[in-house]
């Protein structure tokens, strides 16, 4: 009934999509900023995303601490708290271990867009190595200091690889962060295979990346088609609300495809 | 009951097969020329192919505009309009992002047939780079000018890769364009792996490609077997009509296997 | 009730296993020699192996011609006829296009056993290139002359790759040819990946290959376990008959594991 | 009701998880030491892990012989007997053929942790080659002499590759050996793909490996989350008992995540 309700329902759908598309498995999570209070955000309690339901969601403060909730939160909630703090322009954050991205966090070869659906990655993806500032650790982001260092690496971009661990992505909306997170591994696979073939590789140009980012809004038909398709595959289509339709309180987006 | 009805039903089956065989996902589409009016064609409205039903089909004019239909069409319908325009000998077109084909659109190494089921590809597959003529774009074919440039690249062949995007394939019938589109990624995988092993690769010779193209018709037993198998896997076998059987109005093809 | 009945039922199970394990898809087939008449063999009519039932089986003569059966046989039945003719010591033949074997038929790097379950391959796998003797063809084995040339390439071994096409395997029993055919692609994958890592590769020694072939019989516990597992996965466990059990007329094998 | 009952139920769950996560298939097995008698252990009879139920379990003595049970045991039970004998600090052992680990047993390039979930591997994984001490064999561990040689290779570590065969892993608990066995192939894949990209690879440092092994206990929230997720995927969630919950007799672990 309210914008908050829509957002919370989209967050549940997003959890299921990320799980069904193999971006996350037992581990990995997604958060969304509170629409009315930028210093709060929502994320599930410590649970595999595939199993998340509405009642599993916890409200967090800006330091990643649960508000009035004694259930176990994700250990790495500080990834979300720190990125949302550093980037007031973004509202949703994903952390995942998606396999195909892992090799690029281990070597010098950067991950950068080669396929059109990878344009949302931006340019070359920075790699955050926790060892630089924190020495030998268990590689998990377990406090705000580590989260803020990761957010610094993310900079003005939308994704950072985490060496030997996975990636963190962030966007203006749940739909966009999910899309980015689903296509990041796909772009990684295409680039890895192009490297197999050898020789010069045609990356997306900055102009192409810009043209694509100008053209898309979260609720344009082309973007919605993927969200609807993934939600359907994940068994959540009954939870979808198209902006502008009855019962929806989403921002009206540009519907031109 | 009529040839049009058979064609339209095959188009629905084809959508499901392409989705089930992972050639298309949320994105990708297939069209077929109107059997009675070469300046018209049919394709689904903007919807994931997996979900397409008979009532989702729209009739288009030669410029890719829907006729008497206000539903949202695919953004890239101009791929279909332009190829059908340039190639009066062909009746069906597929556009897909099938992952295994993507690397070959990024490098110099051409994709060409190495396995017998890849013979329908023809010789070396041309790569269409939208940047050549149109500079920095969002890589999508969003008007007839771009579609015609792609059709020019396709030339007299049956498939063209689209750099950083996917491929466009076209054939004399729905069955043949589906077969080509399903086997294109398989051939790509075999070639990629052969490159891993290193050394000289035995490609199909032009004589072998010609021998295979002479031998096959859309409704020969060997071709039908795959169509029936894929339709069964996609849950559509109840929609099949074998040529020559009761209720079928397909062209009588050469049934010799 | 008879040995023939058991054999025919195993042939149906084998078809389903090969399909479910992705050795075959729409294409590919398996035959078994008639237990009472070595100049006859059984194989399904032209149908995807996944769909084969008892009533789909056709009896063939030594030239690969159906006996008293007007249904369409597989085009490449001559592979089976010729190998069964050349190898009176073997009773079952498989032809398949299994993807992971394809690259090895295209390059100089031979496919040979690296993992213990690949020992049934024997030593280096010969590659049959139809072009050598028959020039440009559609690559299919469509007559006894081509089949006999393939059988010559197979020689005294159990498998031959068919350049740009797939492989043909043959063994003393249905269980063994299925096992060989399932493990051939697995061995191919392990070898391909070992080549990625680079450097010297430890192949199975001839002594190890011999030790393994001495140790296994079709109905030993270790072999039966895989057959039972695969049949169960393929939904056919109700069709299994363990040798020595009530209703079975299989040869009594060595049950020592 | 007792600790033994919990352990036995976990062993059934572990069998299903290893099968569902493709660590094992028809072949492969897991054992657990008897909680009250260190010279005894439990493991299923010779059966695919996917099919194992409580009543399939056999109790073994220290030499790998079944106690009062005439059913066929796994041929390679000596892997378990020997490792449990050599390592009184460990309680559970897995033997598997997981495909992605196979290449590393064939070449000089060692398998070592590159991703955080691979830290449980320890440092470089030793490769046991049965040929060194036993010459040409069928590669199977079929007696205590071979099992003890493998255990010597394992040394103080938690996993050893078995050349041309698979791996053996061992840990302090069922949950930990399952986790290690599931993540070993994942780490192998990441390392293989990083090698494709070329150049220097950032392995986990010994300090990172140590930090991670200090932090985890079998029943910490982060570890339990994966166990619960995998059990749910394998259809066994109804069999789970969380330590500290009603009906559980597991050791109380450190629940701090």
Provide structural commentary.
Four copies of one chain form a homotetramer. Chain A starts with a helix and ends in a 24-residue tail after the last helix. A seven-stranded mixed beta sheet of chain A has the order 3-2-1-4-7-6-5, with helices on both faces. In chain A, strand 6 and strand 7 form a beta hairpin. The C terminus of chain A is likely disordered. The first copy, chain A, is built from seven helices and seven strands, in the order αβββαββααββααα. With 257 residues, chain A is an alpha+beta fold. The interface between A and B is medium-sized, with 35 and 35 residues.
Topology readout:
Four copies of one chain form a homotetramer.
Chain A: H1 3-20, E1 29-33, E2 41-44, E3 57-60, H2 77-86, E4 92-96, E5 127-128, H3 131-134, H4 144-154, E6 159-162, E7 166-171, H5 174-197, H6 206-215, H7 221-233
Parallel strand pairs in A: 5-6
Antiparallel strand pairs in A: 1-2, 1-4, 2-3, 4-7, 6-7
Helix pairs in contact in A: 1-5, 1-7, 2-4, 5-7
Task: Write out key terms for the chains shown.
257 residues; 7-stranded mixed beta sheet; homotetramer; alpha+beta; 7 helices
In short:
The structure is a homotetramer of 257-residue chains. With 257 residues, the first copy, chain A, is α+β, with helices and mostly antiparallel strands.
